[in-house]
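Researcher: I've been going back and forth with a colleague about how Endo-1,4-beta-xylanase might be arranged in three dimensions. Neither of us has a model we trust, so I'd like an independent prediction. The organism is Bifidobacterium hapali, in case that matters for your notes. Sequence below.
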Amino acid sequence: MSTADLPQYPERRMVRGNGIHGDGGPYERLRIVEDSLSITGTIDGQVLASRVRNAGDSNVAIDVTLDYWSDPHTGEQSNVANVALEYHTQPWATIEYDAASNGYESSETVQSSQSAVLAQLNAIRDYRNPINITLIINKDDELVRIPVIVRVAILDTPVRISGNRGAEQRGVGATTSTGEIGWRYFADPQIVAYGGKYYIFPTTDGYADWGGWQIHCFASDDLVTWEDRGVVVDLKDQHLDGSGRTDILPDRTSCAWAPGFAIRDGKFYLYFSGHGRADRTNQTNVAISDRIDGGYELQPLAGFNHDGVVAGDIDPAVFEDPRTGKWWITWGQSPGMYAELADDMMSIVPGTIVETDATRGIREGSYLHARCYKGVWTYYYTYSIDDTSSEWYRIAYATAPSMEGDGSQWTYRGEMLVQDASKGIRGTGHHSILQVPGTDDWYIAYHCFLDDAMRPRGVDARVGKQLMNGNKREVRIAKFTYTHPDDAAIAAGEVPLINAVPVTLAGVRAQRYEA
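Model: Here is an independent structure prediction for Endo-1,4-beta-xylanase. You can compare it with whatever you and your colleague have in mind.
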């Protein structure tokens, strides 16, 4: 090949986000590759992003991110061992591709026909290993060769309903609501381990102004593959038993948000918040069942109207202290607040409200858990900062040696989960925490939203409004760890801190436990 075979590369084309400040070096290679080569998917919506990055050693990487679901109609999942991509080059660029060096049978280096090269690349299905190609351009009458690595990863957001199943769920998943095929939008996940399985109870998202009214139950044997068990709370009708009653929660039919959960004495308690249609006053409500994945009956008690008015706020989360056996509920937006639950699990023990200013920047989404390390218990108060539509929605935490106290026993410890803009994963917040029974393995279930380029904001056809970032949230799961202070540090009062939770495209590895 000679320079006569290619048109001149058009100089100084502007490329978004690469910060080019002159020719030469890695930035110029990034600019040239982004100008000259693109990779798309053959299945509509499967490729969420195709980002050009510096891979070092004069290499450039194109990182292709696939949606977890390749077919929202059937629930078929994306598979890096079987994915169809299409390569597109500009007229001033050509590609060399050596199949043999990439582990394929052919030993031919195809470069005589660009259409043949593209056909061979487009025929590749297995991307478990990166594909190596060389991009060639004519720049200033010289051939410039840039090694390019094509890498494919899947964004793990497994909690979703397929289109057909969703259409049966009283509108959830149907295309009449947001224009989406299938239903991927869930938020505020409450994760639970029970009976050898895992369960997630989330807010149903995807509606303008956080207008979801149903709570689903998702179940998994291994934290990886999730099955929709259907709607367990439906405030549109306010009845689950066919009775047709609408007076259980008068005027409480508009929204169901932020589930909390408790299991006590063979009963399952599903807490959630929302507001009424008339005055939009926030309220905490309870539904009770004899089984975990259905049969929940809404309780007529309209909130915790005692000396701590939980009814006036949102985001309930319930916690059993493993050291004392006491039950606590946390809720609200600011300051950090919790109180002891009475035996009925629907009222607060008078005089037990604790407020703390150690929850610096708290907005909502409180959660409590405890861990014993080297014989010492530490309590963790985790919570969300900023607005759920903000890309900087994130999680921070405080610790304490005991739940009892006046609030001064809590110490702010910093942020533990923050967005990764380079991956397009934003607004990482409102969470719950899981300890796998019988282990010291810990997981956090949280929601995020994706960049508009990855997940465009649809329109809620019910009200004709475009979704905000905080209306298109998706559930993710990550494993996290703690620091390990030695005996001397523990004796001096140091506590295990939560290590920063990595924000990755990948999900978690399968983990089972025995009931």
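Researcher: What would you highlight for our discussion?
Model: I'd start with this: Confidence is low (pLDDT under 50) at residues 14-23, 106-111, 165-181, 305-309. After that, consider the following. Residues 46 and 505 are 14 Å apart (CA to CA).
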